[in-house]
Amino acid sequence: MPSAESRKVLIIAAEASSCLYAQRLLQHWKKHNISIEAFGIGDQAMADEGFECLARAEDMAVVGFQEVIAHWDVIKRAFHACVQAAEVRKPQVVLLLDYPGFNLRFAAKMKALDLPVVYYISPQVWAWKQGRVKTIRKVVDKMLVVFPFEVDFYRQHDMQVQFVGHPLLDELNPKHFDEKARDAHRAKYGLTPDDVLLALMPGSRKSELKHHLQTQLETARKLLAKHPHLKVAMFVAPNFSKEEMQGLLTGLDFPLMLIKDEPFSMIDLADVVLCASGTATLMVGLLEKPMVVMYRMNAITAWLARMFVTATKHFGLINLVLDERVVPELFQEQAGPEGLIAELEPLIVNRERRKMVKERLKPAKNRLGSSGATERVAAALENYWI
Predict the structure, then answer these.
(1) How many domains does the chain contain in total?
(2) What would the mean pLDDT of 206-230 be, rounded to a whole number?
(3) What pTM does this model have?
(4) Range of 184's domain?
């Protein structure tokens, strides 16, 4: 086994959710006094755990063809910096999380250097671009997947795959399901048990804020005009500061609470959530909060999505996990204020409707395996240091 000083892992975590999962892995190693030299792409929270950021996830979390082109210089520099570091430092294993456009090209470079590649948080190739699995099979040694249905998909393509469970299950706390604890938590924000709080979650990428923020604000403004007792909050994603978000809310003409905290702690406050599609829908669903899922993007990317996303009935992850449309999904032109209000209003005014949706969300926890995903990922990586 290599000495502690020689244990090296290159990690690419370029999105908010991936950074959280990588951060938990770094914390696991620290907790168990396992000395590992970890470097690559990550965020400030990872850096606080001793991770060496060669590039910042905050600069790279973009979606869509036009957005990628606009950030191409930043992405290209990060790519070459990590390839160069791999050549010089020769990690025993390379751990890639999601971010397929970048990571699959990077994996090919790593295979050319004869470095083992483990992919944690699979690209959603089962939903679109299924042909990518041929590339994945060539450049990835092992897939660590978080959805049970992904196992059969990769086995059908003769890939080494392990279901580790979803790391979000480790973020759940019994207090999130304790009514008295929740009431006490809400009271800190001036909310009574009878108040209905609508939470806005426009996304964790700058490109998502560009397409979602004003639509969500306009939706909230119109709902407040009809329901003046409604409370509204904007939840700040982990990779944005409260000051950054405040700067985007100039000229706001209705009362809005701006809250920055751990994601599950924030979501715990809400009664109804307007949520950008992504990992956030799983967080909201695991806490059994009624929601409406939306997604908007530039016209070219939306056209491509409609052309290629044909292998799945839903785009909201929570609906995919439950294998039915438990919560509404609105895409592109449907996801304007009027369409969103039509879906949100019944949840806001009808407590029984909220209870019904809550019950239908309950099975999500069991569909995602059991807690301990981070430990299982750490154990899988341990094989590369033996």
Answers:
(1) 2
(2) 92
(3) 0.84
(4) 174-367
